[in-house]
Design a protein that fits this description.
- The chain is mainly alpha-helical and 420 residues long.
- The chain folds into 2 domains: 2-77, no CATH class; 82-419, no CATH class.
- The chain has 22 helices and no strands.
- It has helices at residues 2-21, 24-33, 38-44, 47-66, 68-77, 81-93, 96-111, 117-136, 138-152, 160-177, 186-195, 199-224, 226-230, 247-262, 267-283, 293-310, 314-322, 326-337, 342-350, 357-369, 381-388, 399-419.
Length: 420
C-alpha cells in the first residue's frame, strides 16, 4: 500500500517539477514583489535547481512512507554517472585553451564556405559542432557550441528572435547529432549494447538521416536570419585568433578532455582526471578564464534531481509505451521526451524482451527527435541553458519560447526520421 501511494506521490511531484520549469519567470517576478523573501524566490526561479528541489521533497516523502533504510537503498540504487560526467566535461571543455582550439577549427571550416564570415561561422557552429558530438559526446559538443555562439553572436546584441531560433536549432541538432556512433548520445548508449547496434548500424540507420536534418536546420536558420548575421562584423575566419597560448598548455587540455571522454562511464577515473585538470589549470592560471564550476554544479544538480525523480516514473511510462504500435510509439516517444529525459525512455525500452526491430527504431528515433523541445528533454540541454541564459531578456530562457523555437527544426527531424 505504501509503495502504491509513493508511486502516485512521485508522479505528482514529477509533473509539478515539469510545471515549475515552465513557471520560473513568475518566481523571478515574485522576487521583485516580495523583497524580504527575494533570495528564496530567485532560487526557485533558477531552472537548474528545479528538479533538485522536487527530488528533495520526494526523498522526504519516501522516508515517511517507506522508512529511512529503504530511502537510502533507493538513492544508492540510482546511477549518478551522467550528472557527474556532465559536470566534468563542462568544466574541461569550457576552458580557455579548448575554446580557442575549437574556435580556430570552426574558423578554418568557415573559410571553405562561399559565405560572408559571420554567416559562415554561424552555420558551422550550428551544424559541424553538434555532429562532432558523435565523437566527443553530446555534452561536450553542447558546451563548445554554446560558448562559441555566446561569444561571437549572443554577446553582440542580436535580436531576441534570433536568440530563440538559435537555441531551438542548437538543442535539436545536438540531440540528433550524437547518433552517428553508439557511445555518444545517452538514449542510444542505453540500448546499443543490448541490441547489438555498432557504428556501421548507427551510420546506415540513423547517422546519415541525422546529418541531413542537422544540415537542413542549420541552413534554414542561417538563411532566415542572413541579413542580421551579415551586419555583425567579426574577425575574418581566415585570420587565426591572436593568442599567446602555449601549445603545451593546449595539448595538455586536449589530453584531459580526451581522458574524460574515453572514461565517461567510470566516475572514479574521470573525476580523478578532473581534479588533476583543476590543479594544472591553477598552475597555469594566466592562460585561463574563470572555470565554470558553478554552472557545471548547477547542471549536475539538475540532472541528479531528474535521476531521483525519474526513477519512480517507470510504472506509468513503461505501461504507456507498451500499449503503442510502431508509428504511435515514434510520435509518443517524441512527445514524452519533452517531459522526461530521453535516455530514461530508451532505458525502459531496453527492459522489454523481444521488441521487434521497427519498435526499437521508433523508440530511439522518437527519443532523439524530441530532445530539443524542453530543457529537460536531453541531458546536454541544461548545459547550453546555463551558458546562454544570461543573454536573454530577464536573464532566463522562457520555456514556451524554447518550445516554439524548437518546433520547426523538430518537424524537420520528424520528416527525416519518420518518412525517409
Amino acid at each position: 500500500m505504501a509503495q502504491t501511494i509513493l508511486q502516485w506521490v512521485a508522479a505528482a511531484l514529477f509533473f509539478l517539477a515539469i510545471l515549475h520549469t515552465f513557471s520560473t519567470v513568475y518566481f523571478a517576478r515574485m522576487a521583485h514583489r516580495h523583497v524580504e523573501h527575494a533570495g528564496v524566490f530567485h532560487l526557485l526561479g533558477e531552472v537548474e535547481v528545479v528538479f533538485g528541489v522536487w527530488a528533495m521533497l520526494l526523498v522526504i516523502a519516501m522516508a515517511g512512507l517507506l522508512g529511512r533504510m529503504d530511502t537510502i537503498d533507493y538513492l544508492d540504487s540510482r546511477n549518478f554517472t551522467e550528472p557527474m560526467f556532465v559536470f566534468a566535461i563542462m568544466v574541461v571543455a569550457a576552458s580557455k585553451p579548448i575554446l580557442h582550439f575549437s574556435r580556430d577549427i570552426v574558423r578554418f571550416l568557415a573559410t571553405l564556405l562561399p559565405l560572408q564570415s559571420s554567416v559562415a561561422f554561424y552555420f558551422v557552429s550550428l551544424s559541424f559542432v553538434p555532429l562532432l558530438g558523435s565523437f566527443i559526446t553530446e555534452p561536450a559538443a553542447m558546451t563548445l557550441a554554446a560558448f562559441m555562439l555566446r561569444d561571437m553572436f549572443f554577446s553582440r546584441g542580436i535580436s531576441t528572435r534570433l536568440k530563440y531560433a538559435t537555441i531551438g536549432a542548437l538543442f535539436v541538432n545536438v540531440s540528433i547529432g550524437g547518433v552517428l556512433t553508439p557511445f555518444a548520445a545517452p538514449p542510444v548508449l542505453m540500448v546499443a549494447g543490448k541490441w547489438g547496434w555498432d557504428i556501421a548500424f548507427m551510420i546506415t540507420t540513423f547517422g546519415w538521416k541525422a546529418a541531413l536534418a542537422v544540415g537542413v536546420n542549420a541552413l534554414a536558420v542561417t538563411y532566415f536570419f542572413r541579413r542580421e548575421l551579415r551586419e555583425l562584423r567579426i574577425e575574418s575566419p581566415a585570420r587565426r585568433a591572436e593568442s599567446d597560448m602555449p601549445r603545451f598548455v593546449t595539448a595538455m587540455h586536449l589530453l584531459f578532455l580526451t581522458g574524460v571522454i574515453v572514461f565517461a562511464h567510470h566516475p572514479p577515473i574521470f573525476m580523478g582526471l578532473l581534479l588533476f585538470f583543476l590543479g594544472f589549470a591553477s598552475a597555469y592560471k594566466r592562460y585561463q578564464d574563470r572555470l565554470i564550476l558553478r554552472e557545471g554544479l548547477l547542471v549536475s544538480f539538475f540532472l541528479a534531481g531528474l535521476v531521483v525523480l525519474g526513477g519512480q516514473q517507470q510504472w506509468w511510462l513503461q505501461e504507456l509505451l507498451l500499449n503503442m504500435d510502431a508509428s504511435s510509439l515514434y510520435f509518443g516517444a517524441t512527445a514524452l521526451t519533452a517531459v522526461t529525459d530521453n535516455a530514461a525512455l530508451t532505458y525502459l525500452g531496453s527492459l522489454v524482451e523481444g521488441l521487434p526491430d521497427d519498435f526499437k527504431y521508433a523508440l530511439v528515433a522518437g527519443a532523439v527527435s524530441g530532445g530539443g523541445l524542453t530543457v529537460i528533454a536531453n541531458a546536454p540541454n541544461p548545459a547550453g541553458f546555463a551558458i546562454l541564459k544570461g543573454h536573454f531578456p530577464g536573464q532566463t530562457i522562457r520555456a514556451p519560447g524554447l518550445l516554439l523555437a524548437a518546433l520547426p527544426p523538430t518537424l524537420v527531424v520528424i520528416l527525416v526520421f519518420y518518412v525517409l
